[in-house]
Every structure is written in C-alpha cells, then in structure tokens.
Amino acid sequence: MPVSQKIHGMLSRSSWIRKMFEEGLLLRKKLGPENVFDFSLGNPNVPPPCEFKNALTEVASQSLPGQHAYMPNAGYPETREAIAAHLTQKFKVPLKFEHIIMTCGAAGALNVTLKTLLDAGDEVIIPTPYFVEYEFYVDNAGGVPRLVPTKKDFSLDLEAIRSAFTERTRAVLINSPNNPTGRVYDAETIKELSDILEEKERLYQRAVYLISDEPYNEIVYDGIALPSIMEYCRNSIIAYSYSKCLSVPGERIGYLALHPELAELEDVLGGMILCNRILGFINAPALMQRVIARIQGVQVNVGEYQRKRDLLCEGLSACGYSFAKPDGTFYLFVRSPIADDVAYVRALQQRGILTTPGVGFGGPGYFRIAYCVEDATIIKALPGFAETLQEYQNSRSV
Amino acid sequence: MPVSQKIHGMLSRSSWIRKMFEEGLLLRKKLGPENVFDFSLGNPNVPPPCEFKNALTEVASQSLPGQHAYMPNAGYPETREAIAAHLTQKFKVPLKFEHIIMTCGAAGALNVTLKTLLDAGDEVIIPTPYFVEYEFYVDNAGGVPRLVPTKKDFSLDLEAIRSAFTERTRAVLINSPNNPTGRVYDAETIKELSDILEEKERLYQRAVYLISDEPYNEIVYDGIALPSIMEYCRNSIIAYSYSKCLSVPGERIGYLALHPELAELEDVLGGMILCNRILGFINAPALMQRVIARIQGVQVNVGEYQRKRDLLCEGLSACGYSFAKPDGTFYLFVRSPIADDVAYVRALQQRGILTTPGVGFGGPGYFRIAYCVEDATIIKALPGFAETLQEYQNSRSV
Questions:
Q1: Would you say domain B50-294 falls under CATH 3.40.640.10?
Q2: Which chain B positions have a beta carbon within 8 Å of A250's beta carbon?
Q3: Which of A165, A200, A364, B395, by CA, is between 20 and 30 Å from B332?
C-alpha cells in the first residue's frame, strides 16, 4: 500500500462522494451546464464587500520593510489588537491582543486547538448532524469523537450531552449557526451547556473546554441575536474564519479567541502557538492579516442570503417538503421523503439538481441544500424538486 | 494538565529556546538595539523582486467572479500548469499540472506528505544536522524519525543511511541546500542514494520515497548546479516554498511536486489532496496562487546572499573560527570552540550577538549563524566574534 492504511481507508470511504462529484460532471455534459443546479458546495457567491477590495489594493500597493516576512507565529500584534477591540464589544468580555491567535481559517484553528488539548484517547463531544470534517480533525490529534444527536428541531439535547461525558471528555465542540442545519443555539442553551461543563469539571477535577466553531457568526436572519459564548462560558475557545463574512474562503484567514479567564490560559496559548507552527501553518497569511485588521466589523450583505433562504423555503414548502427553517448560514437541511437519503439525492440528480446526502453529516434521512447560489438557480430548480417529490409520492400511493 | 501531555513536554523542552529569546529581548534593553546583532532567525532580509510586487498589485486590483472563493483543494489548474511547465525545464522530467499540489509553504507540504505516507511506527530517515521541526512533522503523522549523522563536511554518509533502513522505513527526508549547514548534495550522491532506495524497495517489497525539502533551491553560490532529484530518483517528492526565493515567508505559499512515474501515483496524489483538506490547510492562499502563476522563475538577487556569505566567512576565518563554507542557503554552521555550544552561544550573547546552538539542529558542538541580515550587522559583529573566541583561547592556554 503506497499511502498509510488510515488514509487508504479514508480514501475508500470518501469514494462515493467523489463518485457523485464525477457523476455531477457527467451530468453537466449530458444535460448541459445551464440545466445543472449545483447546491452541493458551501462556496459563498455573494461578492466580498467593497471595503475588503479597497483594503486589499491598499495593502498590496504598500512597500513596508519586511512586509511579507515572518511575523510572530501568533500573528501581527496590530491585527490581534484590532480583533480584540472588535470582539470586546461583540462578546461583552474584555479581550486583549494576547487572547487572539491568527490562523489559516477555522479549519486551521480547530486543528491547532485539538492538537493542543488532546492526548490519545481523549474524547470530544460533538452534536449531530455536524460538519463531518470534525471527525478527521479530532482523529488527527489522536482523539475520539463522541457523537450526540440533537433534538428534532436540531437544538441541543442537553441531557444527552450530559450523559455522553466520561472522565476522558476534554471538550465539547459546537457550531452555531450550524452547518448543515442552519440552527442557532440560544443564550439559555449556551448557559445550561456551560453549567454542565462546570458540573463535569468539578466531578472529574479537570478542565473541559467549550470549542465554538463560528464561521457563520454573522450570517443570521430575522434579527436573531447570536449569544456570546464567552459571556456564558469561562472555558470557551472561539474558532473563527473570515471565509463567510467576507466571502473569501480561498484566502485562509481566521483566528482563535480565548476567554481571558480560561483555565491555565498561558499554557493553552503557548501550546496553540507551538501547534500552529509544528502542524505546518507557521502563521496565517501575512497580507490577509493586514487586510482584515483594517475592516473589523465589515461583512457581506446578509440580506442577500436571507432572500435566498426565503425563496427556497417558500418554494420547497409549497411543493410539500418538510424542514426546520434555518436561523442562519446558507444551508437548508431537508427531510428526505424516503429513508435512503443517498437514493433521494441521486433521484434529484436525474433532474440536474446537486445536493448532499445527510449521511455525509451524520444525519441520515435528510439532505443538505447549500443556497449560496444565484436566485435564478433556486427558481429554475424548484420544478425539479417538486417533480422528484411527486414521483416518490405517486410510487408510494400505487 | 490543561494541554496534552505531548504538547506539555514539547513546551518544556523548547523552553530554553524561549528563555534565550527572552534573554535576547533583555539584551536589547541592556545594550540598546543598535548593539544587538541578531543572527538567530532565517527571515530573509533581501526585498522581494519587483516582479512580485507588480504581480501582487495587479492581482489585488482584479475583479474576477469568485476571485477569493474555494478552488479545488489542490489549487488553481492554471497555477499548477505554470509550475509544471517551469519544473519540466528545471528538473528535466516531463511534469503536468496534476503532478503539482499547491500548499501552505514547505512546512504544509511536508506535513501533508508525511500524513499521507506514514502509518503509526513507520520510520523516516533524516540526515543530521537537520531542521529540527522535521521531528515534529514526523511525529504529527505518528511516524518515528531515524536520525543519521552526515560526514564531517556535512555531505551524506550513504553507508550510514543504508544501515539505518528497516522494514518500517517509508521515506528518506533530505534538505539540500541544507539548513543549518548550507551543504548542497551533488548529482553523484543523489544517484547513489536513489540506488540505495531501489535496493531497499526490492528487499522489503515496498515503495520507499525520497522526500526532498527544497525551500533554498535557488539560493546557491559559485555557479554550483543543484542536481534535479527527479532526474535521478523515480520515487521522489519535492516540497517547495516561495518563502526564500521571493522573500515572502509570511505568505505561506509553496507546492508539492510528484515524479510522474512515482509508485502508485494516483493514490498518493489522492491521499495528499485529502490530507491538505483534513489537516486544516484546505488549500494554499488563493491570492498568492494567482501571483506566483505569473512570475515562475523570478527570484531574489542571490548575489546579495553570496556577498554576505563571503563577508562573514572571510571575517570569521580571519578570527580563527572553523567551518565548512556553505554552497547555498543563508546559514553558516560554525564549529564551537568549546564542546558546549549552548555555553558558547551564551558567551556570544554577552557581546550582543544572537546565534542558535547546534543542539537545536541535532548538531551539538556547532552554532548556526543566519546571515540574512544587513552587511553592516555582519561587519559590526565581527569584533565581538573575535573577542569571544580570544577569551576562550586565553582561558584555555592559562
């Protein structure tokens, strides 16, 4: 075997996703690209805000000494300072530059965090459905994911989380607004979750961390207020990415923010800076660090995503699909009319509609629609969604 | 313990480096920054070529749809195409875009490679002295480094490498031009090393890869020709970074190049693309991918580093220091006049000279001087180098 056994296993497990991707390509050839409606990827289609573009051209045209050189592995102090000031207002907790570590996006931030915290066999509680890459990230650090289903409306099942704790539990990893469900956890939920963590810390005499993956932090609708995790939980670590709020996922820029009263803060910070280096990130890209320092608080027009959500939800509701309306993100997690979500996703494919089966998110019986697409794509795909559902309903009533 | 036991161990082991760094800061306060000569870091001081700046401002001012969006995890096909064309000429092996994977620098490239190839307990042969981060990279992937000393002139000891092979050996990791020694391995050495790999592949009935870390590829002096690893070795993987050739280490841009006839190429490529994603890199920064696609073959003025090398080597030689003159990089690995290189580095510190002890590179009894600094820094530091040596010689003759 040329690659490691683990990677070989991952490659074969992921091969059906690759197969569907290849089928998608074939579909474009067969139906013509104008008849293929791709809802499979969370690649933001709303353009970056003009403030981003302005900051980028300004920074790119500067000529500073050592402008593209190594900086401290945690990032430029000015950038970390600007973020800390912004978050102090937003999170209602006094953060300083030393509580911020610049990372290559949220994926980098999470890998750094897990590598810092986990010994082999340590457990991380993850509510499902979930962004399935978490499982790889935990495994990279030698940890074990403990998957805990959410309730029917995708809100946290706090009793199930409480029961999932063991003496090996090192962290709970949440993602709100959630990919793939679009659910936002409210303040009361976060407070209760924090109480559970404290209870278990007393029981096991060991710090348990709440890791909150927040790349969709700004993408919330209907005036919903996203609660500040830090306001409610002392042992909280936020993994953030600018990918979605600025529509720049290709640039790999994000950060880790640590609660100023985090258990043994110094060691965790030191470990994270070390891990950022030894995992091979070294530091977050220099140029983007300088760009985002100038545009804290700037974000894409979230109204665009809300319009797309409404268009899609109304359309699918009218056809007879059932789902929990998302509070945020640009994902809709729809109940599959048949138990076999992979089969249903394939049926949609026959009408040129590309979605992702729920099994890919630990949520079988559902499928995910990423609606970060043109409005026209949603409008043109609705008849196909309706016909596919009709087909299954007819076959059932026969 | 708040951080993992492994990270805790690493933090305490690296604490003397941190301590020396802190001492360096104190030194600046004590002596004044103008009297501190910092040769400790490999942070290039020659400015990026103007072609880089021009390409950057051009790319930054473009407005393409999805300009900062996700691209395929392996990178933009155009960028990979441009690199393949450049390397085909340089390496004398016909590379296509699919043999190139864009990475977050060479550190990212090496972590991706090792994660792809190693099962727990697999061994990687590494000649010493070496860039000590390799040990972390191998460990991240669950592997075991097998350190093999080089000869007195820092050329490869091929017999020692042959003897270090076991049935668990998965790869040999070389770095030429070498950090910290500046040594370049010649064509004959690479050919013989490749023969050893083939011999061991036959013996153990298993592919063994030559991983060549080449961030200093262009930084060679005296018209020395760096041999093409790919020309001599079929199972070769090149990890490259633009950090040094363009003086942009903060931007995290590099690539992996795989020999077109690599053993089970498809699986290795697939594994690497998967690992680039699951390790949290996702993809190399988008903007820099577009920049470097336009300036293949462009590099900093290497003559500047050669001038610095000559200035330093002549100066230290005149004082009585002994070393093997480097063929490339911007490092000089000097024999410590006393066995305890840490003590000697501390003695230099007393005269405001910051260097790195050889133990930090698996080369005790030496110290490293990174001469990517102003000429004036070298000139002003030479008396301090001379006085420190004199002091030790006097104390010995007493």
A1: yes
A2: 68-71, 283, 285-287
A3: B395
